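Tokens in:
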């Protein structure tokens, strides 16, 4: 019975997205929803950026094992990203009227930098899309006993079809409905769990003393690790096409930055619900924690200990939220691939209708690669973290400089990207004691400064030597 209702639920979601897709008449409509979203749609779309697999599955699992300090990355880092983007980036980027984040690198640094930035941006999404597919596969397996790999494959087919048709218009409309449903579902489940325990305070009083520890120990290593956790999503997701797309789809500059704040507040508030539910699960059903995969605790508990209406609301809304997140995550790199890699490399210009089809075909390629990755590595929290770190060490510094430092040049941007990536990868291979992302971010900053000030001098000397 539950499977039947979830099938109907997913079908209605796809139909809603298809209905919204009637507004897609150009590549601009497909990628940025015509820059016309009102506050409610814009804020709900931003709220849905991360709220799905990594929050409900990944964060709740990490919280059970390590307490509040173990989930600094998400939800706290994710909320920080939205606050920072709304404060320092949204208005400046909106006024530039860009279609993709890659366009910023072209306008500010030139085509070579655009291409390198695009080549770095696209791979950063594979892990993120894979994380969403793993989450959907986990749900399919729990509800229908499909097996994880089969669940991932089924999910990939569904969400790829949805993304191929829908574009940003469909994503935004479904985000609004799905945000209401997922909040309602989690709130009802949290209330039921609290009532079964005799009250929320009883659950909270029974948790280990260090569960709500928020600040690190008083030593440099712990503090650096804590800052690094904030930075993974807090800074690493700022140079990401999916956040850029959702903000730039707003109907005005004012809506763009305000929706970031609304979404941050909503995200940070609602994300506490799955954390509380995980505590309630440990208190009421400690045997549930003996499952092989801690990511399965919450869905298994819902299936075993709640009524059918609650199960339908929870699993249906959660699947829809993850579908929406996955759809946007597939669209983002597809937009970069078509607009900032294929288009500049082609000698012949393409019509807008051809660009629209090219972006849709790119979605298929993104889906295929991410599906393979999802079948290979199945830890949701790790997949999301790795994708964000990739952007942080390569793109954050030159993107920020593009908007705030007029002296920054293409040489500095190129050296920054190269240094950040090389040092980060080297530190991973060397297994450094301090987080590799710290070294990578510092290398990117030093590379920007060195390239900006020394690069022109080397070029000038080379030219003089030739003459």
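Residues out:
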């Amino acid at each position: 019975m539950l499977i039947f209702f979830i099938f109907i639920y997913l079908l209605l979601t796809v139909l809603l997205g298809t209905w919204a897709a009637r507004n897609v008449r150009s590549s601009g409509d497909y990628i940025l929803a015509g820059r016309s979203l009102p506050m409610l749609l814009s804020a709900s779309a931003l709220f849905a950026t991360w709220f799905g697999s990594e929050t409900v599955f990944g964060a709740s699992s990490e919280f059970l094992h390590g307490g509040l300090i173990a989930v600094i990355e998400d939800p706290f880092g994710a909320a920080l990203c939205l606050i920072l983007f709304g404060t320092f980036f949204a208005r400046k980027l909106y006024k530039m009227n860009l279609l993709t984040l890659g366009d910023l690198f072209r306008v500010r640094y030139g085509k070579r930098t655009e291409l390198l930035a695009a080549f770095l941006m696209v791979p950063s999404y594979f892990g993120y899309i894979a994380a969403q597919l793993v989450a959907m596969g986990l749900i399919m397996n729990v509800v229908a006993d499909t097996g994880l790999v089969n669940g991932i494959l089924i999910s990939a087919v569904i969400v790829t079809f949805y993304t191929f048709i829908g574009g940003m218009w469909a994503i935004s409309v479904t985000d609004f409905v799905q945000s209401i449903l997922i909040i309602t579902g989690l709130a009802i489940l949290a209330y039921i769990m609290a009532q079964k325990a005799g009250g929320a305070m009883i659950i909270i009083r029974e948790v280990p003393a260090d569960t709500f520890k928020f600040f690190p120990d008083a030593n440099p290593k712990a503090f650096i690790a804590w800052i690094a956790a904030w930075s993974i999503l807090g800074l690493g997701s700022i140079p990401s096409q999916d956040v850029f797309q959702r903000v730039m789809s707003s109907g005005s500059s004012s809506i763009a930055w305000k929706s970031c704040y609304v979404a941050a507040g909503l995200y940070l508030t609602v994300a506490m619900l799955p954390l509380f539910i995980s505590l309630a699960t440990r208190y009421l059903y400690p045997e549930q924690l003996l499952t092989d995969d801690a990511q399965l605790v919450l869905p298994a508990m819902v299936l075993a200990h709640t009524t059918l209406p609650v199960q339908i609301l929870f699993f249906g809304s959660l699947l829809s939220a993850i579908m929406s997140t996955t759809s946007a995550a597939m669209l983002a790199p597809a937009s970069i691939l078509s607009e900032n890699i294929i288009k500049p490399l082609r000698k012949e210009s393409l019509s807008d209708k051809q660009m629209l089809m090219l972006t849709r075909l790119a979605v298929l390629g993104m889906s295929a690669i991410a599906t393979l990755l999802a079948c290979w590595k199945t830890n949701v929290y790790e997949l999301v973290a790795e994708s964000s770190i990739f952007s942080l060490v390569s793109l954050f510094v030159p993107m920020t400089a593009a908007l705030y430092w007029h002296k920054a040049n293409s040489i500095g941007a190129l050296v920054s990207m190269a240094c950040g990536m090389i040092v980060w990868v080297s530190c991973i291979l060397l297994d450094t004691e301090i987080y590799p992302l710290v070294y990578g971010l510092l290398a990117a900053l030093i590379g920007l400064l060195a390239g900006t000030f020394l690069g022109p001098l080397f070029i000038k000397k080379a030219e003089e030597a030739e003459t």
